[in-house]
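ingest -> fold -> write
write: protein_1
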Amino acid sequence: MTSKPEMTAAEIAKAVAGGKMSALDATEAALARIKQHDGILNSFTDVTADRARAKARAIDADIAAGKDVGPLAGVPFAVKNLFDVAGLPTRAGSKINRDRAPASRDATLIERMEAAGAVLVGALNMGEYAYDFTGENVHDGPSRNPHDTTRMTGGSSGGSGSAVGGALVPIALGSDTNGSIRVPSSFCGIFGLKPTYGRLSRARSFPFVASLDHLGPFARSVADLALAYDAMQGPDAEDSACTTRGLEPTLPLIANPVSDLRIAIAGGYFQKNVFPEAIEAVSRVARALGATKVVDIPEAARARAAAYVISTTEGASLHLDRLRQRANDFDPAVRDRLIAGAMVPAALVDRAQKFRRWYRAELAEIFRSVDVLLAPATPCTAPKLGQVNFNLDGVELPVRANIGIHTQPISFIGLPVVAVPVPLEPLPIGVQIIAAPWREDIALRVAHALEKMGVAAAPSPRGI
């Protein structure tokens, strides 16, 4: 048996564990797809073929010896290149980081994925230092949308979106500070999970904004998201923000009915600055779930503004020495925003953090009466590569700065979100399924219900 391009991770693991397909065959099939299609998609920056084959052979040997190889047996996966991969410099989408010594150890989440039987096949393209929403990288070139290669993947985890949307791998890992899992999920037509802040370890990954950074998985099915998420859970003393909560598996819960859940539509701010396709996607999801209640989220626009202040100032602080020493080696757009962030008055940062506490309390009150909120993931389907501006509610605005207009007010306070792809024509677009802190299981349940109804689905790649 040979792995087919759109075989899910669960199907591959079942076939490998059951002896119907070898882990090496699954790995070789993924490597062959990468070789065939990545010249177009430009999703990978590094392919770890030798490492992957060695891991696959070890899994096959363990199976032959009757050992348990884990729930992700033989499943190929790849990671955004801000994850430490042993033997590679952690480039984080930059030119400067390529001068770093190779990582001596994998990131915690890679270790946990491989402990569950998964096989790392490479590192993925991304926006420089994760400060990007487009998926365009001036050093490595843009990752390309698998449904129309003239269009953006979304950023900053653009390579992750492209690789999974293009069916090169069934699972990829990315990061989300202000929307960088949910935006590529939306543009590339796949499922993405941004867990609760602190839920998954960030140890041995390159940061952007430590107080907002999350790591999480992309997949072509909700079951695969849950498989990967469950494998990566657990405390980690190497990430001071990581929760000490025990394992809370979600895979056994995703098929539970959603009829008892209180589901509402995010109103006000989240129904503005949208193209018709975003309105249609939320409408389809709401109708399928029988959701009619509309809830206003107070001061969401201020939340987005405060997220900007915190992002740009923390990011500037992290990169200050690099800005002083190697300013010309940055993407100019990233460099200029970081320099601007270095000049933001401390009083504004203090106000942003105080507002953040207030806003978190307001959302906690909303989640006393609802279990799930529905909102657009992006204001539009994927723009053209190189597109500078678009028109939102009659106003010409820069694309790069405004793609995350509906994601930033959510990650600002670390809420868990599953982005579900709605397969509109000619391009898919995502909807955010937002839950209360630590209730990833609820968001995944709703996403699974939508998938079973056919409302949410990862379409086959049409651009390759």
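write: protein_2
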Amino acid sequence: MHIRGDHAELVVGGRLDVRSAADARTVLHSAVDDGAGDLVLDLSELDSWDATGLGVIMGAHRRAGRCGRRLVLRGVPPQMQRLLVATRLHRILAIEGGIGVESLPRV
């Protein structure tokens, strides 16, 4: 997993899973704490995430809300969009451009 960017926009790539969760959490929390306004997470380079990775994103979402900020997901890959819909988190998280639920392929 790699994360690059600043307190306004971060690009997350690789795998966001149990092995990378602690490092990702540290970077995301620092970005939330050090900035103002929306924090955009560009996930277009993300290969996969597991439940732990999703938990990291939800934790950053909650932290951002407590700091008066908003976490915005950008470039969410289709397979991860399906997971957000299945867990109904697409209703909670801010997703740039939204998720066209009807356009997602069925699995």
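write: annotation protein_2
The chain has one domain: 2-95.
The chain has three helices and five strands.
pipeline exit 0
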